[in-house]
Structure formats: structure tokens, C-alpha cells
Amino acid sequence: MEDRISLKRIIKLLCISAKIDMVWLLRDTKYAIIAVCSDVLSNLSTAAGVFLIAVRFGGIGEMRSDEVLFMMAYSTLVTGIFQIFGAGNNIHISRIIGRGQLEHCFIQPLSLPVQLCTQGFMPFTGSANFITGIALTTIAVHRIPLAVTPFWGLRMAAYLMTSLIILIARSYMVSSLAFYAPVACEEISSTAIDDPWLLSTFPLSGMPGYIQIPLITILPEGLLAWFPALVLLGKPPFAPYYPMLYAFLSACFAAYLFRKGFLYYMQKGSNRYVPHGFRR
Known about the structure:
Oligomer: single chain
Largest sheet: none
Structural class: mainly alpha
Shape: globular
Number of domains: 1
Order of helices and strands: HHHHHHHHHHHHH
Radius of gyration: 20 Å
């Protein structure tokens, strides 16, 4: 197994994943297009629902309807980037652990982190929401309007990365349970990603503190779209770099839990490979 890997090698691995994605698109074009359209419609319906509520009532809390549109555009961008780089089971890691497939990665001539970072890359069938997010962002920025500068663009890229780190850390945090209970926790990452994301698309502006505080501390829903969008709009609820600190602490805690569960898994193995295993 390689201890070090070059950037050139990582790009080559991403290209292999992209080629596999293109093969799926060309070989089963009808199914691939249906999957892409369903993702776009799902995200647009979520964004449209919240935006239309904001238009009907002249905004939500302290956010005007155009600012709500920008928040929904930001949310769609995060979803799009997530689907491009994490449409495989590399982020829904509990599936790999729960199905007893982690051993498949051990026989590869690459480290586990490199495999998890590159195997879910789907730029062709997974880019629809990202493109939609760019379009919505362009419309929202024009309607507000915002002074878009190179520095503002770098800040937006940094907050998009922050939101992704928080989402991935949450997935790996709860997926560590699959090391101990693989059958029961096989799909726990899906719940940890999908359910909070639906709640995160609604603005927290104007809500009482007993609702806002838990959703930006104990739970990260308010940090996935609402808080970063307000920072980029120049209206941060408080310290603008709080989401980045939260992302760093979440990633460290998730890494600790995952490593601890991984060591347990290395000692006990998966019960799905024993004679009476679930997938024997």
C-alpha cells in the first residue's frame, strides 16, 4: 500500500471515476437522465417551496425574499458539489461498513483515505444540481444586488467547503456506529445526511433563540446554508467564522470516533462473512 500519493495520481484516479460515470451515462442513458432529472426536480421543488413562502409573506424573519432565494441557491450549490464528489458510498460510509465491504478496500494498492476521496466522483450524472445552483446564484446576486468581487468569490468557496465538511463529518460521526452494529446501522448515514438537509433549507431568521441555538450548536442544520448565506450577504448572526470553527471541531471528533470504531472492526471483523452472515 502506498504511504504517499502525488496530486497527479489523485487526478488520475478521479479521471477513472469520471470515465466510469460517463460509461454509465452512455450505456444506460435513459435511466441516467431520469436520475438526473429527479435530483434537479427534487432540489428545485424544495427551493421553490421556501422561496414562494418568502414571496407570499414578504420575506421570512429578517430575510427578504431575494435573500431567501440566495440562501436556497447556496443550498443547491452545496447539494451539487456533494453529488459530484460523494454520489458513491464514499460519504455514505456506513453502507460500506455495514455490508462488510471495507475489506475490499484493504486489498487495493492505495490507502483507504485516497480511495474514499476519489471513488465517488461523478461529474456527468452528478453535476445537474451544481449547474442549477450556479444559475440560481446568478439570479439571486443580480436581484439583491451584491457586489461580487474576487475576495467575495473566495469567501463563498470557503463557506461551501465548510458546509461540506460539516455534512461529511456528521456522516462519518454516526457511521462509526456501523463498526459495532453493521446490520442495524447500514443506512444510518443516509438519515444523518438527508433529514438534516431538509431542515437546513428553511431560514432560521426570526425564530426564537431556543430554536436557533440548538440548530447551530448541538445540531448543524443552521450552519449548512442559513448561517453561511447571511455571512455572504453581509448580515452574519454573530462571529462570521464560527461555521469554520464548528467544521474543524466536528471533523476532529468524527476522525476520533471513526478511528476508534475502525480499530474495533480490525479486531472483530464483520459478521457478514461468517457462515451465518447476512450476505454470505
